[in-house]
Amino acid sequence: MIKILGRTDSINVRKLLWLCDELNIAYEREDWGRGFQSPQTPEFLKLNPNATIPVLIDDDFVLWQSNTIIRYLANQYGGQHLYPLDVRQRAEVDQWIDWQGIELNNSWTYALMHLVRHSPKHQDLEYVEQSIQAWTKHMHILDQQLEKTGAYVAGQKFSLADIVIGLSVQRWYLTPFEKIDFPNVKTYYQRLSQREAYMRWGNNGQN
User: Is it true that domain 87-199 has CATH number 1.20.1050.10?
Assistant: First the structure.
């Protein structure tokens, strides 16, 4: 049985938990991170020198970086319907996974830390507004892509890309600021909310 180290209110940990539910992967989980065991301990740093969650332990194999972990789980535990073997189809899924991790994630950071986490280090309102504008720009890109596919991020079928972006959409709707209405994103959110695992780990009120 695999082990997942990380708290359940972490968006990156929830990627793994959602995927495990989709693939019926049995797992054990330990709380690590803010409010729980510190990832700065020597014990944890031996597993992940970055001191970040999640960490996956599969027998004697240890892996960190959430998007790498979900790719591994899909490859190792029968998730080819979520992470296609066809090179071009897989590349499209990877494109949107990486877009979330690099472009979308970086756009919201300052606004989230100010509006939700109330971080003392993120109190510059000009930077907050810049973050909101960048976040909105990227949600517009997502809206256009969803209009193109009419279904999911990388095409007609649910994939790993929807796990990382579906959690991001939840974060968009829960962060308190005035938003542009993106109709295709809203429909996508409703479509994902028909999935039991998304209701448990995505649309569950956690930001």
Answer: yes
